[in-house]
Amino acid sequence: MSKSRFVVARTSDVAPGTSLRVNAGGRDIALFNIAGAFFALGDRCPHESGSLCAGKIVGFAEADEPGKYRLVRDGEFVRCPWHGWEFDIRTGKSWCDPEKSRVRAYQTGVTSGSDLVEGPYVAETFKVSVEENYVVVEI
Amino acid sequence: MQDRTDHSIPAKGAAAGLFGGAAVDCDVHVSVPSVKALLPYLDAYWRQQFVTRGIDRLSWNMTSDPPNAPIMIRPDRRPTNGRPGSDYSILKDKCLDLFGPSAAIANCIYGGMALHSEDMAAVVCTAVNDWLAAEWLDRDPRLRASIVVPLNNADLAAEEIERRAGDPRFVQVLMLAMGEQPLGKRAHWPIFAAASRHGLPIGVHAGSLYQQPPLAGGYGSYFLEDYVAQAFGFESCVLSLVSEGVFAKFPELKFVFMESGVTWLAPALWRFDKTWRGVRAEIPWVKTPPSQIVRDHIRLTLQPFDEPEGAGRLERFCEQMKSDEMVLFSTDFPHWHYEDEDVLPIGAETALARKILWDNPRATYPRLKALAPEVLA
Amino acid sequence: MSMDLLEPREKRKPGGALQGLGVVDCDIHPQFATPGEILTFLPERWRDYVRTYGGFYRQPLADTLSHPRMAPDVARADSWPPGGAPPGGDLAFMQRQHLDANNVDHGMLMPLNRGPGNQRNLEYGAALATAVNDWQIACWVERDARLHASIVCTQEHPPFAIAEIERCAKDPRFSQIMLPPKSLEPLGRRRYWPIFEAAEAFDLPIALHVGGINGYPATGSGWPSYYIEEQHTNVQGMQGLITSMVVEGVFEQFPGLRIVLVEGGVAWAPPLKWRLDKHWKRLKSEAPHLKRLPSEYIHDHFWFTTQPLDEPPEDSDLLETFEQVGLDRIMFSTDYPHWDFDEPSFVAAKLRIGPEKLRAIMSGNARELYGLT
Lengths: 139, 377, 373
Description:
Chain A is mostly beta strands. Helices cover about 5% and strands about 45% of the residues of chain A. The relative contact order of chain B is 0.16.
């Protein structure tokens, strides 16, 4: 089946460092903005189905030896709001169980309202205005 | 998981020893008959202290190891005179000659390591190790020993390890499951550093300094409660060793849990792995699931094996741990956990038994690696 | 266009046996809507006391636990009600997010708030217990009949505890007595037996929800450094609790006593039974008051709640372990609104058992224990 491109949000709806739950083609999707770049993950944690867009957006804690803590890639991981599993927002990979547990990552893009009018986009939930930019998710 | 047919071993009772193949007994107990027996191993100052203060008349039995409790001394292993575990000829007849191990590791669980005076504890531990070497190791080439160290001062413990490390008959360092602080705490690291330097595993034996109540909620009425609680103490050791990053700091170090029971470990690790997935950012040096770290670094001696009779729990444990390398053979002599010679819960002819009896101990103790089955008389 | 987090998401298909099944949740934590809410249930003398002296526990920190948790209020990040109350502090939100959404027929309230049983000032503890019990009825059970209250009391002074139990027990809105497992002495000790006697007389189960502050370190070798260790000590703690109650002879004395272990996990129980049986056989002479195998007392007197669900690598190991405990002794719980919450469909999916057994765990066993319809 060929992919469809869904218009899911105005870029201004998701400020850098935040997330938003959107729905596209019947699927719940967690949309993240990392410093102006948009990423879309399936919203459901593969463990117990916690809603990832309700999770805290955090950095990754590392240590080479006990007591030597450092934080890297701040703002690029989301912790599931329930059991705290960490997912890489860029890939959907779970850090603790990368083989078995990952969430689907979807291609995103930003398109201007004027381009959107020409399609082929599905804008299910709201009206598009030519003055704004939009996040598009490919499903 | 393992080949169960490849190793053909002579039947039980064959000339090669009771198991028909080589074995290492990783936990037998020897005991200091009295404080007086240590006097020859003390210097002039301490000898006079011990005599003038009447210390040489004290019993330094441990509360966690009451020598006459039925679980601690099987009737046929009880000496006619003296303290259980203090008679070499019984150890020889009822354990070494009977089960036929190539080597047996003697653990002396002794009150000296629990003394609050750090200096006195250190001196007593040194004396006990000298006594072990002279009275036991010199007497039977099959015997090895764990280094007894003062548990309330890690620096003095490390000094004792340095003093003893040159004697290859000392094959590990002895600690107890329940001390003043959790086992993995940094306060203990000088001990781990010294052990690592000399390729000595840390043998953690059931026991408590009683600086904290074993039930972690006050004291119960019965020794039975405390003895069962040893497994809870070991469970805390697992959590502490992994969480504190002991294996990140000392990647070569192995821990052998002795008289810990076995079957509790698998479910403990299900829970530990689960929690780790959610809160691992608190201890970021733990980079793989705790169960994997435990599989690589922690070993358990066989007796007392906690299972309903004939239930196949040993095999299930290996399946659940995805490892047949974690259990080490022990008789726990002279304790009373099994009747007759029924020390193995599985057939001696199985491949798993061979791992437990021989391969696993030698892989765990660098100082036993070169041990040859030919030593068997 | 931003979606309310409470808007229904696409639902995971409930397993066949869960379809239409009203579950019983044996562990729900209500919270004060505001810190001052409980004060209105306290007499002026104790309102004044708590304002002046604050918390007075057997630990260094006056107002909070000494191992900081990994989530604010130990709560699910999505459980903060929009109106400003803390997680578990807003009934309407709890109804929407949990009771309705998860088809909860009955929920057992487990108030941990301020721990009346842990108060060093026993008279304050008793007043606080009364307040917390009244608060459960007024703010929760009165407003939603699906919820059932638990009688909290001051176990360190049994006369006060018994007076409070007697006051509440005739009200059927209380379904059980709740004690902190971390008491000043192991719970099997005789100082607590009068409370067991009262529980047996009123035919009320005793729920032991993990926690409590007794001044002793959480392990037999002192305080662990990290929350990941301290959280796990609930497991050793529950094992110690069973060991104490069985070996001290509580169930010989009170054969009708029923104990519910809440939030301690389950999988450790079979090895504990084996260990207790084996060593009791050898040390019988020390505890001749025990007439049966320890494992038999355990099966007859203890019920276990599921959360946090043990997650062995093989799902079949979970079922094996539940069967070794007894499928008639396992009861579903969520721990709402805490971070390690378990969803009904998750538990059902992990268990992979027939519908009848699943219904017993999710609902039937608790209905029978508590006499619920």
